[in-house]
């Protein structure tokens, strides 16, 4: 099974929830994930952020659903790091 | 616990807790002052028939509650829908199924309940001596006077709460609201010959 170890996502989100609440809500849905939230641009009602998510087995669909639930949307997946499973003998 | 966290989250993203707090004070003050006005009206007209006093005060409390609920719901729902629409335009997406959409539907109900229930509950608290005196005759001496004192006390406490929020001296804030209540009482007394 292929495991996703690291993701960098370009995300557009409303100002609320703020960075702390947003990243904490993501961390609640992705146990043992290390999440880094970086603001790159701030507009009147929205902000563009870069999310760096590292973990042993990141479930992208859960992350995407959590991001959408908070009113944000993924613009692009900028970096992916995956690890393949051992080949079956 | 999960429900409380969800509610707290929705409240924070719409900042509705600040609006609800403001409504709590504004309409709480309205409720207490309206009751004080009624009680003073009965007092200056020497009306002491408890049934009449309770019915009139209860009618005013229900009207204050209903007015608070409907007016706040109508205005808050319109406000939150407009905010959601503006955010959807900025995000270029439909947010009805997101936390923002849920908050736009739920938070006006919470704010309306705060706005309506606060004056109703405050009015009922003020009426308690009257109700007790009506149910158990002889237990409370001078129920009208005690209810009036209770109204002054609640108005003072609302001022104290306001002072704590604003970070000013709570005692001074309480005294200011108490002064408003005393001026109201004085005006009612002065208008008595009319």
Automatic annotation (TrEMBL), chain A:
Concerning Gene3D superfamilies, the annotation shows: MTH889-like domain
**SUPFAM superfamilies registered for this protein in UniProt:** MTH889-like
Q: Which Pfam families match?
A: DUF211
Name this polypeptide is given: ACT domain-containing protein
From TrEMBL, chain B:
Q: What is this protein called?
A: TIGR00267 family protein
Keyword Lipid metabolism belongs to the record: no
Membrane as UniProt keyword: yes
UniProt entry keywords in alphabetical sequence: Coiled coil, Membrane, Transmembrane, Transmembrane helix
> Which residues span the membrane?
21-44, 50-74, 109-132, 144-162, 169-191
Annotated source species: Nitrosomonas marina
- Where is coiled-coil annotated? 70-97
């Amino acid at each position: 099974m292929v495991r996703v170890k690291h993701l960098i996502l370009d995300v557009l989100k409303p100002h609320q929830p703020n960075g702390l609440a947003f990243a904490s809500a993501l961390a609640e849905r992705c146990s043992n994930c290390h999440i880094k939230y970086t603001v790159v641009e701030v507009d009147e009602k929205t902000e563009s952020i870069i999310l760096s998510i590292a973990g042993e087995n990141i479930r992208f669909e859960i992350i995407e659903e959590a991001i959408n639930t908070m009113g944000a949307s993924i613009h692009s997946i900028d970096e992916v790091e995956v690890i393949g499973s051992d080949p079956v003998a | 616990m999960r429900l409380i966290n969800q509610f707290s989250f929705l409240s924070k993203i719409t900042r509705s807790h600040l609006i609800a707090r403001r409504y709590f004070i504004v309409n709480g003050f309205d409720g207490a002052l309206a009751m004080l006005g009624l009680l003073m009206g009965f007092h200056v007209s020497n009306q002491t028939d408890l049934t009449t006093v309770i019915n009139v005060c209860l009618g005013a409390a229900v009207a204050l509650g209903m007015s608070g609920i409907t007016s706040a719901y109508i205005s808050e729902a319109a406000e939150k829908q407009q905010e959601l629409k503006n955010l959807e335009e900025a995000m270029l997406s439909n947010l009805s199924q997101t936390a923002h959409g849920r908050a736009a539907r739920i938070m006006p109900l919470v704010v309306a309940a705060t706005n309506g229930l606060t004056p109703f509950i405050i009015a009922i608290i003020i009426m308690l001596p009257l109700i007790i005196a009506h149910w158990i005759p002889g237990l409370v001496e001078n129920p009208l006077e005690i209810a009036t004192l209770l109204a002054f006390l609640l108005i003072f406490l609302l001022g104290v709460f306001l002072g704590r929020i604003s970070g000013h001296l709570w005692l001074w804030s309480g005294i200011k609201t108490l002064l408003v209540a005393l001026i109201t009482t004085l005006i009612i007394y002065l208008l008595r010959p009319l």
